[in-house]
Design goal:
single chain, alpha/beta, TIM Barrel, 2 domains, 8-stranded parallel barrel, 4-stranded mixed sheet, 13 helices, disordered C terminus
Length: 483
């Protein structure tokens, strides 16, 4: 058993949900299973290895938003580390590496240079003082982190503009921009706003609702959404067809919970029913989402990979021309810290691509939040790095994004954990700038689904302020990409 310990002044923020979100990875980037405890101002991480590794911790920034930050590689030793100092060192290290690559094309402005210099000075003060004055070290390290995050997020948006300009000059179209449909608003005015805001739609096929009884199907809601999408000339992504979550699985399937073969057959039957019914009426099949992280039915990793293959092969047997995408959630693989996993999400995807099943695109679901089934938000540099890694699969990427945004009046206080519309737009701007991104979807229609406030409509079905800004993305023409 290996142990790494930290001293921290943020001990008052440590509770069970936060501890579950913390994790460590080795060189391969796969999260280690670990036990975490804290006592006084000391945080202890126990792992079944003595290897050096990176520690990831959700940092509450001055803006009130959390970002998952990581340390540089840490090795075991007799002495404790200081958490804030190591997070500041790791964040500044990532920024310096990015700036070194960026300097080949762009010169750093004086404003950013000054912030970077101050960040270095603050980190130096934190490193030199933490053993004699932990409070001072924490304050200086926190300042270094905030300065680094400011530079990272501002520069990432500027560089996204450069990438979009290069994309347009190369004659590449903007990525498709769509929404995952749900309960459609009743008012014609609101439906029209949806039609004007997106050029594509993701039409969900929730197994629980489509087949509430074994062997029986009801496609009324799906047909309504498809009819609306066809009327308005939208590109239609059908799915995900299969999600192994409590919200998506029909109740009757749990009768076969320990019988993989039976569930495998039911999955194939359901996919066959959907594909036969809608073949030729959709522009892409979205086969599955989040199978890489699912543990609801207790399947082994090998069984889940087998099921993913079965879904694609079933579609290809019935429809060999419509593009197929497979989606993965929690792309950093932090869920492996709380249960055994031999494959990172990227390795899972790579295994399917190498099998040459006829997959035409890879989906990545980025549902940001603080629950166990959501990603803790990352800064824009970390998002860029993740997309670069997934781009190595050499398939188009289809991103599904949602984050809690407040539907508030101008004089209302902004809730903790929520993003303002401008920050959400900046994140989308960074994500859509990557050449490998072919489509970008807002992944939640209405607030309140699963207790999340990540919709573009509030709980009454009225558009949130965010919708008026999102519609600018679909309207962008080459050469006019300012948000």
């Amino acid at each position: 058993m290996g142990r790494i310990c930290f001293q921290t002044s943020r001990i008052q923020f440590l509770d069970e949900p936060l501890l579950r979100s913390c994790y460590m990875t080795g060189l391969e980037g796969i999260a280690w299973q670990r036990d975490m405890t804290f006592s006084g101002n000391r945080l202890m991480i126990d792992r079944q290895t003595h290897e050096s590794g990176h520690f990831f911790f959700p940092w509450r920034s001055e803006s009130g938003r959390e970002f998952m930050l990581g340390t540089t590689s840490l090795r075991e030793g007799a002495e404790d580390y200081h958490l804030e100092v190591e997070l500041a060192r790791g964040t500044l290290h990532r920024l310096r590496g990015y700036l070194a690559d960026r300097s080949r094309q762009f010169e750093l402005s004086q404003n950013y240079s000054d912030q970077l210099t101050e960040a270095h000075e603050q980190l130096l003060e934190a490193v030199l003082s933490w053993r004699s004055d932990a409070a001072l070290a924490s304050k200086a390290a926190s300042r270094a982190i905030e300065l680094s995050l400011s530079v990272i997020n501002q520069l990432s948006v500027e560089d996204a503009e450069h990438l979009m300009e290069a994309r347009h000059q190369a004659g590449m179209p903007n990525p498709m921009f769509g929404v995952k449909l749900g309960a459609m608003p009743e008012a014609d005015e609101y439906r029209q706003q949806l039609a004007e805001s997106f050029d594509s739609v993701m039409v969900p096929f929730p197994w629980r609702e489509v087949s509430p009884d074994e062997g029986k199907y009801q496609f009324y809601e799906v047909d309504r959404m498809l009819e609306w999408a066809h009327q308005h000339g939208k590109k239609i992504f059908a799915g995900p067809l299969i999600e192994l979550t409590e919200q998506a699985l029909p109740q009757w399937i749990y009768l076969w919970q320990n019988d993989f073969t039976s569930i495998q057959n039911y999955v194939i039957q359901y996919v066959e029913e959907v594909v036969r019914r809608y073949k030729g009426r959709v522009h892409a099949w979205h086969t599955s989402s989040g199978l890489n992280s699912s543990s609801v039915l207790g399947f082994s990793e090998e069984q889940v990979v087998r099921l993913s293959v079965d879904i694609v092969e079933t579609i290809r047997r019935l429809d060999n021309s419509t593009p197929v995408i497979v989606s993965f959630d929690l792309p950093w693989g932090e869920y492996a810290a709380n249960r055994r996993s031999d494959l990172s999400p990227l390795q899972f995807a790579d295994a399917l691509v190498r099998a040459e099943l006829g997959i035409n695109g890879i989906g990545i679901d980025l549902n940001f939040g603080d629950s166990a089934v959501e990603c803790t938000p990352r800064d824009f540099l970390e998002l860029n790095q993740m997309l670069n890694q997934w781009s190595a699969l050499e398939l188009p990427l289809v991103l599904g994004v949602s984050i809690a945004t407040a539907d508030r009046k101008e004089d209302e206080q902004f809730p903790d954990g929520f993003w303002d519309d401008n920050a959400a737009m900046r994140m989308l701007k960074v994500l859509r700038s990557k050449p490998s991104v072919q489509a970008l979807f807002w992944n939640q229609m209405v607030d309140g689904t699963g207790q999340r406030a990540g919709g573009i409509l509030n709980s009454t079905g009225s558009p949130k302020q965010l919708l008026s800004q999102l519609r600018t993305l679909a309207a962008k023409k080459p050469g006019a990409d300012s948000v």
